[in-house]
Design brief:
The protein has 2 domains: 30 residues; 157 residues, no CATH class. With 191 residues, the chain is an alpha+beta fold. The chain has 2 helices and 10 strands, in the order H-E-E-E-E-E-E-E-H-E-E-E. It starts with a helix and ends with a strand. Helix content is 17%, strand content 47%. It has a 6-stranded antiparallel beta sheet with strand order 1-2-3-6-7-8.
Length: 191
């Protein structure tokens, strides 16, 4: 390879690396919500959720935002947190709200409604940023929409939080809470 071709290839490679680095830095700067991981050992099954914790205050203005029906719109798919899509990992198959979910990692989304009901959406595609469902392909990755149980928290919750808790032999619950609202769904290990 002659010298001019070598220099051209080197310049193109450096520009590509610089572009990828700049995109990653921009994405990191966009993360104003802290990442969190919660997990539970449910009789040998490791159930883990990785998500980000947005706060009620607008990061730019500092004003307190309306959460349910505002920041989290009714009737639309919400990423169940912030930043990248929330991930659920289970090392064994579980029954979650009546749906059998194989061991693996899945994206979780939520769709709250104005009447207080909400669905937990399990999606087989991972590595998503933000909210999917912009095209038919994204919807095709959906595995299930499961009913969540709504309750009121004893005290206001901020920032957004999730929990995985063991509730009995081979059983547990996934919870998500923000403001004075908590949604939950029970799960059980498959035998």
């Amino acid at each position: 390879m002659n010298r001019s071709k070598f220099i051209t290839v080197l310049v193109v490679a450096l520009l590509g690396v610089t572009s990828v680095f700049a995109q990653e830095q921009k994405k990191k700067k966009a993360r104003v919500s802290l990442p969190a991981t919660v997990s539970a050992d449910v009789d040998g099954n490791q159930v883990k959720i990785a998500y980000s914790r947005p706060g009620a205050k607008d990061p730019k203005s500092g004003e307190v935002r309306k959460i349910w029906g505002g920041l989290v719109p009714f009737g639309k798919v919400w990423r169940t947190g912030a930043n990248e899509a929330t991930l659920l990992t289970t090392t064994q198959a579980i029954t979650l709200g009546g749906y059998t979910l194989a061991a693996g990692t899945y994206s979780l989304f939520t769709q709250p409604e104005a009447d207080g009901s909400a669905k937990l959406i399990i999606n087989k595609k991972t590595g998503q940023w933000g909210i999917p469902y912009k095209d038919a392909e994204e919807k095709a990755n959906e595995l299930a929409r499961l009913d969540l149980t709504k309750s009121t928290t004893a005290a206001a919750v901020d920032p957004f939080m999730m929990a995985v808790e063991k509730t009995g032999a081979g059983a547990g619950v996934i919870k998500l809470a923000w403001e004075n609202t908590q949604y939950s769904i029970a799960f059980a290990n498959q035998k």
